[in-house]
Design a protein that fits this description.
Radius of gyration: 18 Å
Distance between the termini: 15 Å
Number of helices: 3
Strand order of the largest sheet: 1-3-4-5-10-11-13
Low-confidence stretches: none
Shape: globular
Largest sheet: 7 strands, mixed, barrel
Order of helices and strands: EEEEEHEEEEHEEEHEEE
Structural class: mainly beta
């Protein structure tokens, strides 16, 4: 059953190569860090939630809103195949009710900030801007793209970044939440220019200060689509029994 249905639109993905050591404490039990071309990634992602429904209902003033998140990539082996997913270090939204529900029911790491966005359409290009405030300081990510959608190639870096269909949350060393996100394969828009103006320390803490002076390895704009988020599963790991229980 879908807990949430919505559209995720115009996903701006700024991808940074990082040392695996910085991610280890965030890795949920039962998963391992996923890599592409022997690289470990975190992604800073800004996008729009549109037409949002929770348990089939639209909540007034919580239908269309921005989100910016910092995430990395994991995988989990189950029933003879790998399930590829993401782990969110922090998710920023402008609605305190969304933060409360996500942190309470899913034990995610949401934070409420003032946010705004803009799409500037020119004759041959579009410019996408996402902003959020730390007190009086506005942080921003911005990119300019061509208008014509193109396919995301199989086996490409862009496919690795966008084709993860599970979310994992570390509750403690013995308990992990897993939820499935369903959506069709996305298209992308070619990125021409990009820019960031972010206080990483105030937004994500001192351990991510290095991103202040790190250039992204890649930048993508995914068009997005309708999505569904299914109800979570509890994965409980009992070390002394050396096996996993799914609740």
């Amino acid at each position: 059953m879908n807990f949430l249905k919505a559209e995720w639109k115009n996903l701006a993905l700024f991808n940074y190569e990082v040392d695996a050591g910085i991610l280890e404490k965030y890795v949920p039990t039962g998963t391992e860090i996923d890599i592409w071309n022997n690289k470990y990634y975190v992604s800073l992602v800004g996008f729009m939630f549109k037409n949002t429904k929770v348990l089939g209902l639209k909540v007034p003033f919580h239908i269309n809103f921005e989100e910016v998140n910092l995430r990395f990539y994991v995988k989990r082996f189950e029933n003879g195949e790998w399930k590829r997913g993401v782990v969110f270090i922090k998710e920023i939204v402008p609605k305190s009710a969304i933060t409360f529900v996500a942190n309470t029911l899913y034990q995610e790491h949401y934070e409420t900030q003032k946010m705004r966005h803009e799409v500037v359409e020119n004759e041959n290009t579009n410019t996408f801007i996402y902003q959020w405030a730390n007190k009086e300081k506005w942080n921003s990510i911005q990119l300019e793209t061509r208008k014509k959608p193109i396919e995301i190639e199989i086996g490409s870096e862009a496919e690795f970044i966008t084709e993860h269909y599970f979310g994992y949350t570390k509750i403690n060393n013995q308990l992990t939440f897993e939820y499935e996100v369903t959506h069709p394969r996305w298209e992308q828009l070619e990125v021409i220019t990009h820019n960031t103006d972010i206080d990483f320390v105030k937004t994500y803490g001192s351990e991510f200060e290095f991103l202040q002076t790190t250039n992204p390895t890649s930048v993508f704009l995914a068009k997005g689509s309708k999505i569904g988020v299914k109800n979570k599963r509890k994965l409980e790991f009992i070390p002394q029994l050396e096996h996993e229980m799914t609740i």
